[in-house]
Sequence to fold (188 residues):
Amino acid sequence: MELIGSSYKGVTKNGRMEGGGEYTFPTESKYVGEMKDGIFHGKGVLHFPNGSRYEATWENGIAKQGSFTFADGLQYQETDWDYCDGYDRRFYSERCNGLRPAGESQLTDLHPPRVIPDGCYDCGDGFYDPTTRVITSYLGRFLRNADDSEHEWIVRTCRKAWDEVVVPPEKVLSSVAARPEETSNFNV
Fold:
């Protein structure tokens, strides 16, 4: 296990995970629950680094029945799902706590949002650097290399650290009009 970066704390039988235990993956995801013959078996919870979790009943390593809860407490429903549909695009925290005051837009479900390192993207489970194509956890630990498909998706859809100055249009117009080198005095 140590060879691939995972670890296990718990009961073993004949050198294999057996009974209750805690298995930590190299990605910092963690399974806490029952094991049998070295695999997930019985009741257990997968905890993800972003705070979300998947509670399930496992049979021979396969989840047979379970429920997913996002980090903000929203529980996924297979039927009658009305969150983030075409009619209501609010973040879950906005549904629970109300909208922010005018002028204080909420960019992510976290408020204030994470500060993204220069030139990088927040891809949901960490930061992505498009120059190296590496995704690191929010704590800076290597998660994975992005393939072409994931790179394209991140660049197209994820929030990026600003690398350019963004000025509201009304400020641009007033600053252009105030520049003396761009104004003319015509005497007619």
